[in-house]
Queue: 4 jobs
Job 1
Amino acid sequence: MVKEISKYMLPLLLIFPIAQLTPTTFPPEEVVQPQEVRPLPGQLDTVPTFNSNSPELVLKEGILLSTFPPDGKKVPTAHLNFPFRGRFDIFAHHVAKAEPAENLRSLYLGIILHNPSSEPVKVNIWQAASYLSQPDAPFIQLPSFSQNLLGKIFAGPGDRVMSDVLRGVRQEIFPAQIEIPPKQSRMLLNLPIPVQGLTPPLNGRSTFMRLQSDGTVYAASLAMFARENPDGSERSLRQPEAGTPTLEEWQNLLDNGDLAGPRDKTPTPLEETGKPRIYGRVAGVVGGSRWRALLVDNPKARYLTIPQPGQVFSYALSTLHGGTLGTGQIQSAPMLVRYPDTAYRAHGNYGIQYNLKLPLYNNTQSSQTVSVSIQTPLKEDRLVKPGLRFLSTPAPQVFFRGTVRVRYKNDQNQPQTQFVHLVQKRGQPGEPLVLLKMKPRDRSLVEVDFLYPPDATPPQVLTVSTQPEPR
């Protein structure tokens, strides 16, 4: 493999294609793990999630997602008329790019809440985080398995945001509560996605919040380029009379603006069409924020019998149309409201938390070593062979990058909590999150929690295996 291109090789590259300078490589072999793949018990809750992820790349300012009523708006079709009350989540992920390259204005992301009632509304911010790709969370290469107790290991802003919220963090830039007077609006977020000084001039911001409102509110995410001074320079944060886009400027964009652009690829219908499947990106309100599952032998059982020595079984995670791993189960959250050119479902379930409890039971007469792991098999809808397919050498594409919390009791019966950061490529079997030595007839509760991270590609599986008995 050509690891580095020296100045002496550059003339060669003008003559010979790069493929001719690298040795012939063969595709990795597929490895089939014979096993049972089970649908995941439980279901999504009914907490709505405001999901703003289309267009991902924003070059034209405008409305990213509005759940406001269309009445009185210049472009009524840009408003989906969905009120929130009580618990709801907000997820937003967007990218800014200098185009043309000399246009280095910052793109601002604004999230606005409106109180339509005649009484004040209080909104509690339970957990919240917002990070940029540069400099907060660059996409760096990381090991496939890292202990991440302090939350210092991440690659990409979505990875870092979900790690924070999993730990119950509210970033210091967010207040614990905001109060919205009657018939008024307040900014929940007003932050830039700067590109100046970056090579290439490209940056992204991921944001996630868990909120509780004591009254009805409408929400919108908006994209606006930095306002300029008369001389063409960006208004500075050090100029209080100017500053970032004001509430009035955001309100004007909401009332009179159209959808931001360019629009992403329009998704194909969920039904098989014979054409390549385009899932599309999400812009709308998702039905659900958390999937709780008790993994047991059957609905009436209180425990999960471990596999026989040398055997394996898995539970499907984040399954979607065309990728149910033989279970027929689609976990993609439904869209309660959406724009017609965006995803039909929340494929990938970005920001949705999985709470998985495994009350393991060793029903054998001997001690067993049991592992619990997350794996990224090759995507299939119906299993070609009775088991999951992996690659002998994982493909280069990263399909899962995020932190998982594991709780269990060790051999001394002491409670343990671990945070493990995983980086899994397509077809990668993964490493055990926990190894348990279980005595005969022993029971052991393992809890696995994670927020499905942005930039991940479903599906994955949660796998339980028992080591073979020594010969």
Job 2
Amino acid sequence: MGVFQALQVIFQYLILGITLSIIVAYLSLAIVSAVNLRRYLRMNSFVDYNSILTCPFVPSISILAPAYNEGKTIIENVRALLSLYYSDFEVIVINDGSKDDTLEKVIKEYDLELVSYFFEYKIPTQDIRGIYKSTNKSFANLLVIDKNNGGKADSLNAGINLAKGKLFVAIDVDSIIESDALLKMVKPFLQQRDKRVIATGGVIRVVNDCIVESGQVSKINLPKKFLPRVQVLEYTRSFLMGRMAWSKLDGLLLISGALGLFEREIVIACGGYFSKTVGEDMEIVVRMRRYMVERNEPYEIAYVPDPLCWTEVPEDTVILGRQRNRWTRGMIDTLNVHRAIFFNKKYGRFGTLGYPYWFFFEWFVHVIEVVGILYFLLIIMFGKPNWEFFGIMFALVYSFAVGLSVWAILFEELTYHKYERRRDVLILVITALLEPVFYHPLILYWAVRGNLDYLSGNRRWGEMVRKGFGAMRAFLRSL
């Protein structure tokens, strides 16, 4: 056997070993998630959330909703926030220098007027141009901040400065929160524990093609288009199978920017959201965890596996590519800034399991995959490819990818059963069969672009274009 053939065999075994390690990791997370989700559902079946609603000791909550060019959805979203079930909360909408009619629509709809409002810049932010409150007493808990553009992190920091709540919810204003979401998310803060709960997160679902009335999802439909439909699979796998497991293993690094509940005091002590990254939702969680560990204070980040929030996902490749590019750059930035955690026993399983998993299986795996593809192309051009090996590898990876998605669909049906029609379940299974071939190459391409853009110093957010919920109401009228 020549040197080239020997290197080829070594590389093939290396690829096989990496593939099997990824399969084992994902299967382990799926099993841990399944066991703990069933346990959560059994225990939670006895909870009466009305007792939380009427409890006089519940912590006050400030809901922070940054808005930039959200004119298409802003009224529906604010209406949904104001209608949440909770006894002591305020809604703070932060208009981050929108260029459309976002601010004008909110002022007109809720009878807002410019007011004098004392606050302290505990966290530095862009200048605030004005603060608005409603002349209608029905909206007394609504506060609108108009500020110079500074990005989502800067907007959240401005909201934190003005917030009165002990806890605050960070949301995407294009999202729709379930009416009882605050009750479910605040529950871990109220339970007797030997650790201080500093944050909770919940499950995010896809709202595309659902019917929205009065700021709430009245009818759940499976998206008609392939791109948002395949994102349903992604979100199901990520939230029901991934984050549930990492919460149990104490290795959770991320609470979705679409919905998270945080202890305001800790976030201020950490210096607020980092405005120099496009991955502020991941970075703040990692920084909060480091803050608690370095002060030797026992803490916990809880995860609520109930579907609590619905968000509009991109429906075309241009917008989706911008989003995934940004996610990649944000992840790399966080991993780089907090690289001291890597395999550091001081941080427990957060450092020895959570961080390494994100490093190897969320970031580095794309690098390995690109190297594997380039290797395969070089072998075809200059060597003698082992077609049997590549055939076995493709069958193994494809079967596992489809099987994992089908498992997620099955588990969703056995637990929350949001898609009631059998036809929808069948369509999701067909989508799972198509995803590895037609969708995953795009994800890989966007990840590569994200890496290259990060290395080139690109820190741009990337504009997200919303279809808005008006189209969903028009669909309802057409039925």
Job 3
Amino acid sequence: MASHAGRGNAGNCWLVFFILIASCFPVFAAQNGAEEEGSEPASLLPGEARSTLLKTSLLLAAKAEEDAGPGSLGSLFGDDEEVQKSPKQGQASAAQGGGIKGSIRFEAARTVASPVHWSKMLTRADLSSQGDLGNGVKWKSGIRIGYDAVYDLYDFYPGRVRHDQRYDFSLRENYLDVSSGDWDYRLGKQHVVWGEMVGLFFADVVSAREMREFILPEFDTMRIPQWAARAEYFKDDYHAELLWIPVASYDNVGKPGAEFFPYQPQPAGVAVSYRNEDRPSRSLSHGNYGIRLSTLKNGWDVSGFAYSSMDVAQTFYRDSVSVPGTFIYQARHDRIQQYGGTLAKDFGDIVLKAEAVYTHGRQFTVLRLADDNGLVPQNTLDWAVGLDFSLPADTRLNVQLYQRDFFSHDADLLYEPRETGYSLLLNHKFTNTLEAEALWIASINRTDWLFRPKLVWNFERNWRLSVGADVFKGPALGFFGRYDAKDRVYSEVRYSF
């Protein structure tokens, strides 16, 4: 049965790519014609062709997502997709309707730490369209289609990793917006972003994330939309938001053997294996719900929220009894409660941002062998404070300090009672088309850091070339150090339309 499903997915993949390739010709023609005439293209594809392309791609993506099943840190490095746009904010663009927009990109990465190997040769398309049905009802529909050739060209990764990461078929935001007086309603698969700092996630507790490349992709690319019903109330300077997620999405960490799989501790002389992830059943008792209130007063943007959910992040339970001498890990998801808030203030050339989240019910790994499941419950407080400076000569500097505090800290935890870190982001524009950026994220408790230099060249309108590196350093159980042997260089060519 699995082999037949794989062949079906492959057939769908190639059919979708033939559609995408065919669609590129009128895109490029419209683009070139607009540049020659000095005007913006009114439409990249005829309306009928756009509609046929989107409907066909959506059907194929939905079928592939069904076959694949559940297994199938503003943005730091760009803005790839509309995120957290409320119905009121989206009225102007939605009223136009009908056009397809998105991006097509090719990404390549080569791991330079031993053993040297190609780790990514990904071609990906993100397509979306939106429109107005009238009577205060609007819609948006989007898909993602991808193929990574590295899994066909090389045998470096095990078969289960190739099967998991060779193709990417997923629905992106697909929802209806309905407005009624001071209330807006959004129903369907959507992004809900309650916080956003540089490089790491803190108050962004609702989003599930694509973690098969750790935290290296753009945040907008990483976020996985949730099937949700959201109601928003707007009155003067106040905003209230009610959220219900009947069927949740969860972080995708990939399969054992993948480049950034989150391996668990392995004591000397002990074998380790992994069971398939145990995701919550699709029942109302496993739904997520929350409320968020915010206001803008005297330039201070302040919000607070309460959220109950099945944790989007995996907790790895340990079985040390079934097979003597072997730790068997299984990823599961527990119900947690989270309470937090955000604030932001613009002081001219300096912008202050801060986020804090208290989490109750999450469990953490301990090294104590006597614990059969290898976990202890720990309530935590995560907070981050950042300053963003606009400097002369088109230069931007962002500085952040962050910390996780463990309440009733267990002495056998992998972490100290207070885990503190900082980040530095420096961006400089040499010209209107060329800029450089470097991000440094490090722990204060120990030598554990990530360094990410990057160069971006917008060599033509709507075209972007990026080259960069991701360098890890730290102990084997460190947040970054666990990927010490995964240093890589990468490049990306993207066409946006």
Job 4
Amino acid sequence: MTDAIQSHAKAGLAAVLLAVLAWSGEATAQNRPEPAPGDTFTTARVRPDGSALFSVYAPEASAVSLGGTDIPNLGPSSAMRRLENGVWQTTVGPVPPGSYRYTFIVNGVSTVDPRNPATSESNANTWSLFHVPGAAYMDARDVPHGAVSEVYYQSKSLNRVRRMHVYTPPGYEKGKGKYPVFYLLHGAWDCDDSWSSVGRAGFILDNLIAEKKAVPMVVVMPAGHTGPFRFGAAGGPSQPAADPFLADFTDDIVPLVESRYRVLPGRQNRAIAGLSMGGAHTLAIGFSRLDRFAWIGVFSSGAFSTSPGAFGRQEGPTWEENHRAALDDPALKKGLRLVWFATGNEDFLLQTSRDTVDMLKKHGFAVEYTETGGGHTWINWREYLNVFAQRLFKQ
């Protein structure tokens, strides 16, 4: 008798649950809005021929355009065409393999893609991000992957909390060994996120290490801006006479890295490189502390005071005059393994790069200089990182 009661109870409970679920499904269906055209398509679609189709649903907009950086032949923006269903579209390309930033400019207001979760930060805004596969050195491949971490720290020199990104190679979290450390600096307008998002640094290192083309290393990507980036009266960057980032790097970032991460000591196990503004930071840090860095890389940059009319030229003593003691110290040259420059032949800092290389050679430095095609873009900087990282920490 008891079994029968229990059986009836279970059956009744099951019926109630089915009824509740059915009612819930009907209520959800009634309350669920009808899908809009923008809910049913991929907003940034890479086609087999390498072109990219961009779409955004903005039925009330009177004008929509695609904005971006580094996308070849796009310019500042490209007008999009409105379809009858309120979707706006445009096609760009073919686009070379790589990652690219973009926004939609709707009625004059720049906005990220509402249906693309991939983003890349810069100094003052966020971009949407799309990737065109086809370059094996930076694609996400079936290889062991390292980790890129957002690391917050208290900067005593700046008296505030700061952030940097740190790449640790595959197996770092399981091992006990120590690694060389590579400090990788970004350019003006960007931030510490840039090298690992649009710059693909983590994937580039993963692939190089998997192919045994690069030594496993820790890569530190700090934030080079310490305040708002402004333009001076002459059109160049307006910066304080003493850049506060240099103190943050020397007094806060390096001690934190060497105390928290398993990095090898000694000059031969430290490298530094940067692009554009980060290249200038690299020169300032590297040649002020040549006893601490054996590997130096400068991408699309140089000492701004070397060229008349150069972007951001300083008043007063030149870079060469300020660093003459290090430039003319033969003891510092002995342990220096590599000074490597690369710039595109369409880059606006091309002459600055050439003049800086000539100046360093005049002081007896064996500088390696590469001139590629292209301009001041991530298309070049990712390739420069790929080449430079293969040279590091090898005999």
